[in-house]
Specification:
The chain is mainly alpha-helical. The chain is built from eleven helices and two strands. It has a two-stranded antiparallel ribbon with strand order 1-2. Strand 1 and strand 2 form a beta hairpin.
Length: 234
């Protein structure tokens, strides 16, 4: 089958899907204001002119035009953003029980989070409460924080050594953020596994984490157009 035929079929399918959505699946929910959106695609396309590295600046700009509560659509999935701290406190603290649950994750996020089986993505329920209890009692509890003081001291020594080594070799420190990130991996690996890993092992963990993060961007199109997987993966 020629590539032009494949492209024609994809465009025809998308057009038909948009037509059906406009006729049969128009939303009746009242959502906060936000940028104009296209069916299926959403309104995230309007943010291309802004830098995603400064997403807080993007939200401030949108809040100045649409108000403190904004709706952004990635595909057909709406996301509500609260940019005012008093409203955020009212929603998440004063009315925490109302907003305690999470919506179902996107298909690619389900894969990365083992079907929402971690603390930052699992739905509100027994699993989330167990994960939260483990976090507060084993990591955030004051005596546990104090017990990890030697680990923090060790990672700080590594950070200082990285700075001093680069200063001796180059005469200046060119990438402080990379050194800070590297030292944090040492600390977190020691807290998680109870072992002081070698530099090569830490670099492997860093690379695996980096590949996972960039996969969010690489495969995000599959959340909107699953049929595009052949073009995304190969």
């Amino acid at each position: 089958m020629e590539i032009t035929t494949i492209i024609f079929l994809i465009i025809s399918s998308l057009t038909f899907a948009i037509f059906l959505k406009l006729i049969f699946f128009s939303s009746t929910h009242k959502l906060p204001p936000g940028p104009p959106r296209f069916p299926v695609i959403g309104n995230i396309i309007w943010l291309k002119k802004n830098s995603f590295s400064d997403f807080q600046g993007v939200l401030r700009d949108l809040a100045s035009r649409h108000g403190p509560i904004i709706t952004l659509h990635v595909g057909s999935k709406p996301s509500i953003w609260v940019t005012d701290r008093s409203l955020a406190h009212q929603a998440l603290v004063q009315n925490g029980a109302v907003f305690s649950d999470r919506s179902l994750a996107l298909p690619t996020t389900k894969v990365i989070t083992s079907n929402q089986h971690d603390i930052h993505s699992s739905v509100y329920g027994s699993l989330w409460r167990t994960l939260r209890r483990n976090l507060t009692s084993e990591i955030l509890q004051p005596s546990r924080v104090k017990a990890h003081a030697p680990s923090r001291k060790w990672s700080l020594e590594i950070l200082v050594d990285l700075f001093e080594t680069e200063q001796r070799e180059k005469g200046h420190v060119s990438d402080a953020l990379d050194h800070l990130r590297h030292a944090m991996f040492y600390l977190l690996a020691l807290m998680c596994f109870g072992e002081k890993l070698r530099r090569e092992e830490i670099r492997e963990i860093e690379e695996a984490q980096y590949q996972m993060l960039i996969s969010y961007t690489k495969f995000s199109v599959l959340n909107i157009f699953p049929s595009c997987c052949i073009f995304t993966l190969f």
